[in-house]
Amino acid sequence: MMTLTRDVAALDRIAARLRWHVVQMVGVGQKGHLGGSCSAADVVAALYFAKMRHDPANPDWPDRDRFLLSKGHSALIQYAALAESGYFPLEAVTTVKAFGSILQGHPDRLSTPGIEANTGSLGQGISIACGMAAGLRIDGRASRVYCILGDGEMAEGQVWEAAHTAPIHGLDNLVAILDNNGLMATAPIAQRYDTGPYPEKWRAFGWHVCEINGHDIPAILDALDAAEQRRGMPTMIIAHTVKGSGISFAEHRPEFHNGSFTAAQFEGACRELAGPAAMPSESGTGGLA
Amino acid sequence: MSVQNPREVYGRTLVELGRENLRVVVLEADLGKSTMTCYFEDAFPDRFFEMGIGEANMASFAGGLSLTGKIPFVNSFAVFAAGRAYDQIRQGICIPRLNVKIVGSSAGLSDFGDGSSHQSVEDVAIMRAIPNMTVLVPADANETRAMTRAIAAYDGPVYMRLTRNDLPDVVPADAPFEMGRPRVLRDGGDVVVFAMGQMVSEALRAAGELDGRGISTRVVNVSSLKPVDEDALRAAAHGVRGIVTAEEHSLIGGLASVITFAFRGQGLPVRCVGIADVFGQSAHSYRELQEAYGLTAGHIVSAILEIAASQRRAGGQP
Is B288 a catalytic residue? Predict the structure, then answer.
């Protein structure tokens, strides 16, 4: 069983470590979905290390809480959390996207311990999460289902089919979290394809909606705790985040949606994150502490 | 020959399965009175999910249910089940090999009045092309029942195609369904007809007509389009001088593709009865469409006679 913590400083440190792993996975000269992985880092850290009941030694434990990344392209942050939790050895993260790796470009449940569903074709993860929540309820399990969506993903029609479904079927064991980082792959959403306003839309579909700073660990924990108390309706937590969060030169920059580092940028990112992550400060190429 | 309705039998069989196995759940997109999942809804309302007219969400939702150990049966018309939910079936169900059963009802031209928007001529082709998918088409209501029970017991994604209309019984009521296995329903030594779905009964009628003309016709029911035992297909053609395929589906990607691929390099003449690369249209009766699209026993007879003629020209018998 995973040991959880409510120590905010520890969770901030874990979130920084997850970002640090993401940077290692992207490396120099290879492309990786850096921006959306970093924007979701604090929510992912809170879920895996403070909130969810899960057991890395027994990924199929029937009473576990489930986590789905509907925005499957941000798999790097989930791989970091799974590795830090102990689902597979930390060394595996260096193989991401390599031929034959257990870590595919998008989440694949048959390849990776701890991955619940195949996501990546956007809009589908939230529907899968709804079905899981319904199945768990039939069985009378207390397990909860958490699902992170992207704001760019809000353009997918299927998201709104699922938005109908969850309240109609009364899925109060489902919590959706919108990683509202404000950037689609090519530009700021508000300038290019504005799918908001999100609170009004999700409320109108019948969800309990709250808005938080998605980088504020206490706020994230409060929202997750409050969702657990809500009966009869699903919860949508709109987490306002910064794309590329934690790496100063990547923040708010669309080019780091699926970007690559120069050697200098890589060193810079490692230096920035090493302190908060309590990692060796000299170089990101060092061993994983 | 007695006549039954396959979707009616499907609906009743779901209720049997629901009674026997608590893991069986049923999803519906507001067509329950056509797909006949209404029986399951009445019997087991807690395991029935009305998903509204949203096939994409329904397919993914079923994937989620299967991930909690349920055996979901997803229902819609074939054209929507295979078409509107294609990417959900591909990405969320077939790549991870989830235990979801997709049942495409009112398939082919069987929804004769509704026209091309509701008629599926390419659903088998779409579903066959997806890795990990099993594709099945029963020939009558008896086989529908056996097949429905078999797919509930099988762990993996399945697409099952059902017609809307009554069909004569051609498979014995107690015959077990074996995935992958073609079945000889009628023996004959000159020509073999490999048929799928409602064309099996047309093929049997054609074989009867040809008896009087001195041509002995074997009829094989190919209800498992994928997987398919190619050795068994070739064994079923042993000794004949030609092959006819018959399907209520596009000639692209369905039974004609299965058979011509299985017999590649064998040198046997093949004629294919099916829907040319065109869409359907409305008609006041199914029969009108069968005639117009070349899907009757008479069309099978013509194909067999063509093969016989080509054999005569080549100096063979008959």
Answer: no
